[in-house]
Structures are given as structure tokens and as C-alpha cells.
Amino acid sequence: MTAELQTAFQSLQDSKPQHRLEVPLVNLNGTSKDALLGQYMAVLQALDSLQTALGEAMPNGRDYQTAKDPNACSKARQAFTERRLILANIREEIYEVAVAISDQ
């Protein structure tokens, strides 16, 4: 794990949601299993697209060469990495719910 990633991971420890996602229970009066899975799959696809877009927009040193702060690029990359880790955590939670729905 790079130092940049380690620092970003440490800063996320206090920013975790207080409540876990609850798994919806498939039943005759509720949304169908297929519809629920479709909704969760759409969320996963959107998160994957966002993760890709963030990766492509990762700050590059050449864009900070004239910054007054010599650490501006490192700070910007750390901020992006933190957000990518948050998205990864959200994706993992959504995936776990989708699996639990699928197992019903």
C-alpha cells in the first residue's frame, strides 16, 4: 500500500456511515426480486462508471507545477484517493445487499 493510499485510508476511519444498509425482504406485496436486483445492479454499474471517471480525472503533477503549495498535487491526489475509497466502500455495501437479495 502506497503512503498516499495509507494516509487516505486512515482519514476514512472516522467517516464511515453510522447505519448499515438493510436488506429488503422479497415478498408478495413488495417489489419483485428481479426488479430489486435490477435496481441494485444499476447502482453498481453507476458506481463502477464513477470510479472509472474518477480514475481518469486523478490529479496529475503537471497540472500543479505552478501551484504556490509544493504539496498541492499530493494533497489533490490524496483527496481523490479518499473519495475513491469511499466509493469502493459504498460499492461493497451495495454488492452485499444485492447478493443477499439474490440468495432469497
How is this structure best described in words?
There is one protein chain. The chain has 104 residues and is an all-alpha fold. It has one domain (29-102). It contains 3 helices and no strands. The protein has helices at residues 3-12, 33-56, 72-102. Helix 1 packs across helix 3 and helix 2 packs antiparallel against helix 3 (72-102). The longest helix has 31 residues, at 72-102. The chain is elongated, with a radius of gyration of 18 Å. The model has no long low-confidence stretch (mean pLDDT 90).
Topology:
Layout: H1 3-12, H2 33-56, H3 72-102
Shape summary: elongated
Low-confidence stretches: none
DSSP helix fraction: 55-70%
What value does the average pLDDT take?
90
The biggest beta sheet, please?
none
Number of domains: 1
The number of E-state strands comes to 0
| Termini Cα gap | 37 Å
Order of helices and strands: HHH
Question: What's the helix count?
Answer: 3
Which strand-content bin applies to the residues?
under 5%
User: From the helix content, strand content and strand pairing, which structural class follows?
Assistant: mainly alpha
What Rg, in angstroms, do the CA atoms define? 18 Å
Short description:
The chain has three helices and no strands. With 104 residues, it is mostly helical.
